[in-house]
Amino acid sequence: MHRMHNQPRMKNGPQTAGVTIHWASHYDIFSRLMGMGVNHPNSRMLIELAGIKPGDTVLDVACGTGNLTLTAQTYAGPGGKVYGIDAAPEMIEFGKEKASRSGLAVIFDVGLIEKLDFPDGTFDVVISRLAIHHLPDDLKRKAFTEILRVLKPGGHLLIADFKPPKNPILYHITSALVGSHMMQTDVWSLPAMLSDAGFEKVDSGATRSAILAYVRGTKGTKGN
Predict the structure, then answer these.
(1) Distance of CA 107 to CAs 93, 95, 98, 221, 224, Å?
(2) By Cβ atoms counted within 10 A, which residue in 23, 95, 130, 178 is the most buried?
(3) 197: pLDDT strictly greater than 90
């Protein structure tokens, strides 16, 4: 899947120095096979790690085709509000179609993680799955600063991103699927970046997925 990545460029979407995936239909098939579909085990696991509860206002940054976003809405409930943004219009169209079919009132829009079009202190929770590794380090830092800005005091961020599996057989299978360059991804560099951006209570760890680790951080109650 990751071999389909485009170099940083504009294709029916905003310009960004991050990598934008435009192969929405292929990406959705891959996601479902990995248990990352709407309300599938991986999506439920991450929403529970994020601590999303009824009534929360949630942002899914670089949401892809909206699987995690729509799962978040089922946890936030009718009293909550969930937004999903992605740089690829094709991804957003897929998300809107899914929301329409499911009857879930998720708001999908084209947008950039490094330039969030929301007021300060809008969200209780910001989530992101398999997206941050697409950003160069300077863009990661901008993204974390923006995410901190749009979080409410006491709100928190959950990132779930790729980690190479330790099992040698699974390692080779995963490498064949995602490309050898992905096996150099270092999710463990993210906690220090979150702390530098001003997040508090930063922690990280493994998940039940063989290829995903999580990183969490909280905005201070004084609003930083």
Answers:
(1) 11, 9, 11, 27, 28
(2) 95
(3) yes
